[in-house]
Amino acid sequence: RHGGRLRRRHCPGAGRRLASAAGIKSIPTLMVFKQGYLVFNQAGALPPDALEDLVNQVIDLDVEKALADQG
Hints:
Elements: H1 16-22, E1 29-34, E2 37-43, H2 48-60, H3 63-70
């Protein structure tokens, strides 16, 4: 649906060390990265419509502009 622009990674066996380093305290946790930057992080599942909206927002996100706007 999104033209191959998305990759999904599911790492249940990655271990406590990785979860601790990422600050994961709840399962499931949704973390979205774009160009190596964490752009979304939320514990808990999202309803399908909200997930679709998030995906579209991340696709449209201009990371360079967002970083510049942060100062």
